[in-house]
Amino acid sequence: MENERRIAEHMPDESCDAAGKICESCDEAGKICDAYDETGKICDTAGKICDAVEKSCGEMCVRERIEALRQAVCGNGLSVHGEASANGDLPADQEASANGGPSADWEAPANGSSLADREASTDSSLSADQEAPANGGLSAVAGTSESGALKGDLWVSPDGLCALYQARSAGFCFGVRRAVDTVYEQIEKGIRPIYTYGPIIHNEVVVRDLEEKGVRVIQSVEELRRIRSGTVIIRSHGVGRDIYSIIESNGLRVVDATCPFVKKIHRIVEQKGKEGAEVIIIGSASHPEVQGIRGWSTGEVTVIETEEEARSFVPRTDKPLCVVSQTTFNLKKFHKFVEIMKGLRYHEFAVLNTICNATEERQTEARSIARLADCMIVIGGKHSSNTQKLYEICQKECSNTYFVQAFDDLNLRLVPFRGIVGISAGASTPNILIEEVSNLCRKTILSRC
Ligand code: SF4
After folding, report:
1. How far away, in angstroms, is 5 Cα from ligand 1 center?
2. What is the pTM (predicted TM-score) of this model?
């Protein structure tokens, strides 16, 4: 009856959210305004479906979606911050929060602690299937293929109505992290002057910090030719053989931070060239990585970036063909181009898939969480194309997606105070920026619930 009375008294006005979200004017008891929830998507804070819309409610409520996410994360062998572990023990951080303040786990450094969590939970026998509840709504997430990508950190508020998911694949990939660490190691050793051949990473914050520490960026081959002393660090993209020759002939010291996955392609191309093969690189001809790969071949090289180029490809020789790929090239396109070129007759054809899955993993995880999230935060530099791409992927799945460069850009008033908030970040986003945003969200969003 009380519910009916509230519905009768509250007709829609400007103060209510017509989209069926929270109505502040009639939310005296912290409940959701039932009257305006015509779609039946909103559930009340007790996790029940409001009486008025019970019959039409076919959506998962916030609590159910968070539970489904929790199960997906646990099903991947990970533990959830702020909850009892699979063996029933309370994590130390939860015990620490018994004083009623923000629980310590919300402030724990996610990446540092999460690694320990992951290692500790590898023996978990829980699987998504075993955990799948009778409720069909929960299994809609926990048992899907996308749930396998959800291997990040999950924090759930004590009332179960707010969750923050930080993607495991957010930020630096292995190769970029290694390259950035290499520069800082050289700085710590007191070596001067230090140069990087091209910016070590597409992130203004990092490049500025390195500049302040005395690291200079060499922008061109001509500039490199003029330098006569110092250390040159090769970034993860790698360079061609000619760049090493210039460094050596100018008496410079080289520190090679080329990603091992890229280095492997250099070796393949060099070897196949020596064997007399004609090399085809599937990738973007203007990308530094492709230019570097090209620089290791001793024979004919063709770069193919588009389907049209694949279709019109004509071998320059009658020698065997060797196809490799730029590490960040789209896998589907790679297979498609290879299929097109395989139509060529009379040529021996060796295909080496040299695509690195770091980008694919990052995008898959971001897409998976964005599908469940009420709000997505994508962190990265405004000039980072992979962050832009990540933003587009998330935006497609979750219209409430925000692109931020640092936590200063984040307007928490735009972030809903219940539901799932997901965080991902581009390949060039430093961990410290991700942690700042994540910590801020944990302290504010989760503590609102
Ligand atoms: S994307 Fe892959 S190949 Fe490229 S730097 Fe990162 S780890 Fe290395």
Report:
1. 60
2. 0.67
